[in-house]
Each structure stands twice: as C-alpha cells, then as structure tokens.
C-alpha cells in the first residue's frame, strides 16, 4: 500500500515561534537570576539560574529541532528530520541531570557553612523570575501536546517556575526566622524537581528510539481485527513504531484467499484494512503498509527464512 503524506505542517512552524518567544523570556530570567545571585549571595537562586540556563540551552536545542523538522524529506532522509526532536529531548535530559548534580554538590558545601543571604533582595529577584516563567509557560502551553519537543520545553519552564517558588519560600523563611540553611535546602528542592523530569524525557525518547509500539496501541487487538475480516487466513510480521511525536507507523503481511487476486477483490479488501487501522483504534496510525499474500507465497517466505 502506498500513499503520499505531508510530514510537516503549519503546527511545526507555530511550535518554532512559541519556542523562540519562550527562549527570549527565559534568557531574561537567567540574566535576572545571575544578577540576583551576585547581589544576594544566595545558592538557591544561583542553582535556579543554572537551572534556567539549562532550560535556555534546552530551548535553543528545541528551537533548532523545530526548525529542522520543517525540512522536507529527501531520497536519503525519507522521514525528513522529524526524529531530531527525540535527540533534542535526550540532550535536554542530560542537561537537566547535570544541573541537578551541580545543585546537590554545591548544596552540601553550603549546608555545612551557610553564608549570609540578603533575604529582601532575594525575594524581589525570585518574584521577577517567577513572573517571567509564568509568561513563558503560557506561551508554550498551547503547543505542549503537539510533540515531545514542545512537551520538554513546557515542562522545563513549569519546573523552573516551581524552583523560583522554592527560592521565594527560602527568602521568606530567612527573613522571618533567620534560618540561613533554608537557602541550601531550597537548592536541594530544585534538584529534586529536576531529576524526575529528566527521567521522564529519557523514558519517552527511549521508547521511540527503540521502536516500541506506540503507547496505547495493542498489536494483539490489531491482529485480531485484521484476522477477523472475510477472506483473511493469516496475519504475520506485524510491526508498529513511532517515528516522531504523532507520527505512528504500522506494517503487516496479511494472507488472503487466492481467489481475491483472481476476481479483483484484493484492492477492496486492502482499503478495508487500512481504514480499520486508521479509524478503529485509539492511537492514530498515519502510515500503514500492508502486504497482501497468497498462502503459497507465505509458505515460500517461511521456507526461505528457515533455509536462506
């Protein structure tokens, strides 16, 4: 079965614009937090600045990925560069893990010997960072379901906003109680926010790179539906995978009655199968390849596989 499909869309261009705006806002967050770290001596806001810098780097990667997926397929890259978003997500996960390790290492040292921190200034800079994070999250919110790339960017900004809240809480605690170690504890809290996000990104990207079946698509169910159709005598070599977010593929060899090829019924049967795959299941499969076979061809294929 062959069909022409567009692998890019206006949604990809919209994603790139959203990421570009969010990147500008996050760059402002980094600048504000670095100034705040220098002005207050706070580890928490310094770690959050590193976190934000990681987010900004991740958004740069995401922006490049969003631009690259707009390039059309070629004879060598038949899917275009759609899978670059998966590599980008892995790179973002690595950056997030590095930021978390930095937070823990620096936090342990500061916990043992907490420096004086300017609470009022810290609270002011935390407020600026939070406002910019909320703005960036709102920009990305509308596109977070479109791709793994957009989801990664959105999660980074939201988690950074939570990190800024931790900084603000530590500032309030130090201002009201004088407990200086609250700053280091806030740094640990930010690290705890980062690590689960990195793990989730690695998990989702690995599912795609390992070509697992799309989440929510039961291949046994697919096999049963195809096998139950009239004139179908067998289904084998059934595979499904995800090329990139929202781009799911399925292929199968289906054995049908020999008479279907003689009386011209095979094309109609093929249309029914592709409609079934496209419409019956919860996961939208956008590319389906079904090879129709006679029983004799299937036997020869199985014999050749055993005795190449």
Under the CATH scheme, the architecture of the largest domain is Up-down Bundle
Largest sheet: 3 strands, mixed
Beta strand count? 3
Mean pLDDT: 84
- In percent, how helical is the residue content? 55-70%
**Regions with little confidence, pLDDT below 50 for 5+ residues:** 1-10
Summary keywords:
Alpha-lytic protease prodomain-like, disordered N terminus, single chain, 67% helix, 3-stranded mixed beta sheet, 2 domains, Alpha-Beta Plaits, mainly alpha, 10 helices, 3 strands, elongated, 308 residues
Description of the structure:
With 308 residues, the protein is mainly alpha-helical. It folds into two domains: 200 residues, Alpha-lytic protease prodomain-like (Up-down Bundle); 88 residues, Cation efflux protein, cytoplasmic domain (Alpha-Beta Plaits, 2-Layer Sandwich). It has ten helices and three strands; from the N terminus they run αααααααββααβα. A three-stranded mixed sheet has the order 1-2-3. A hairpin with a 2-residue loop joins strand 1 and strand 2. Helix 1 packs antiparallel against helix 2, helix 1 packs antiparallel against helix 4 and helix 2 runs antiparallel to helix 3. It is elongated, with a radius of gyration of 26 Å. The protein starts with 9 loop residues before the first helix and ends with a helix.
């Amino acid at each position: 079965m062959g069909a022409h499909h567009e692998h890019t869309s206006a949604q990809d261009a919209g994603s790139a614009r959203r990421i570009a705006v969010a990147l500008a806002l996050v760059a402002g967050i980094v600048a504000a937090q670095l100034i705040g770290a220098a002005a207050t001596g706070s580890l928490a806001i310094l770690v959050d600045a590193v976190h934000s810098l990681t987010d900004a780097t991740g958004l740069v990667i995401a922006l490049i990925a969003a631009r690259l997926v707009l390039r059309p397929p070629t004879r060598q890259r038949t899917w275009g560069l759609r899978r670059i978003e998966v590599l980008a997500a892995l790179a973002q996960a690595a950056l997030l893990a590095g930021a978390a390790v930095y937070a823990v290492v620096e936090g342990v040292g500061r916990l043992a010997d907490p420096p004086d921190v300017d609470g009022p200034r810290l609270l002011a800079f935390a407020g600026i960072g939070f406002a910019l994070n909320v703005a960036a999250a709102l920009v990305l919110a509308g596109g977070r379901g479109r791709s793994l790339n957009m989801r990664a960017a959105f999660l980074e900004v939201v988690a950074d906003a939570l990190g800024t809240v931790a900084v603000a809480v530590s500032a309030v605690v130090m201002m009201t109680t004088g407990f200086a170690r609250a700053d280091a504890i806030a740094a640990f809290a930010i690290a705890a926010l980062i690590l689960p996000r990195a793990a989730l990104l690695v998990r989702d990207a690995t599912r795609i790179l390992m070509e697992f079946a799309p989440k929510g698509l039961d291949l046994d169910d697919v096999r049963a539906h195809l096998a139950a159709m009239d004139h179908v005598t067998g289904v084998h070599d059934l595979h499904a995978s995800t090329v990139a977010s929202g781009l799911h593929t399925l292929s199968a060899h289906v054995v049908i009655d020999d008479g279907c090829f003689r009386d011209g019924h095979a094309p109609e049967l093929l249309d029914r199968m592709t409609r079934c795959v496209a419409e019956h299941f919860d996961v939208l499969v956008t590319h389906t390849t079904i090879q129709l076979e006679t029983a004799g061809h299937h036997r020869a294929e199985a014999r050749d596989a055993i005795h190449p």
